[in-house]
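Students often ask why we bother encoding 3D structure as a string. The short answer is that it lets us treat folding as translation between two languages. Here is a chain of 172 residues written in the first language.
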Amino acid sequence: MTVRLRVAVLTAFLGVCGAAGAQQNPLDVIPDKMPNATPYGAPIALARAQAAIAAATAEAEKRGWALNVAIFDSGANLVAFERMDGAQLGSIAIAQHKARVAVKFRRPTKAFEEGIQKNDLKYQLTLDDIIASRGGIPLIEDGKLIGAIGCSGGTGSQDEAACMVGAATINK
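And here it is in the second language, the structure alphabet:
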């Protein structure tokens, strides 16, 4: 009886393991539509970039945050940058990196953060020019990507909150 019980338990265990192994890997799912396919548009004008920075820095100032804010155009070129008084120097390059990545990959940088932290998509770490930290937001006008805003100097959620206010001047 003991041998039969052991065989039954082993068979049930192998059946469960086989069913778990049969689940499809999310990386093997083929979407019907191309994700993040917003077309690139004309580059953002300097005046609009400065308005987005002004909105982001006003939000940061209101909350007592010292941030660096960068705007890149649709060709991934720096258009405007502002470092608030007291913002940490190490975050200058990070703010620019966030904006550049948001343009190049046509998505918020939060998508990479979540992909790695929540969905265990470690392969994203092998992609060129990735930053897996929130605070980079694409700027979309009339359905086209005209640039991106990147903020750094606070926590990821602070950077993202300021960027969202700046992006709201364009993304309507």
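Translate back mentally: The mean pLDDT is 90. Keep this in mind for the problem set.
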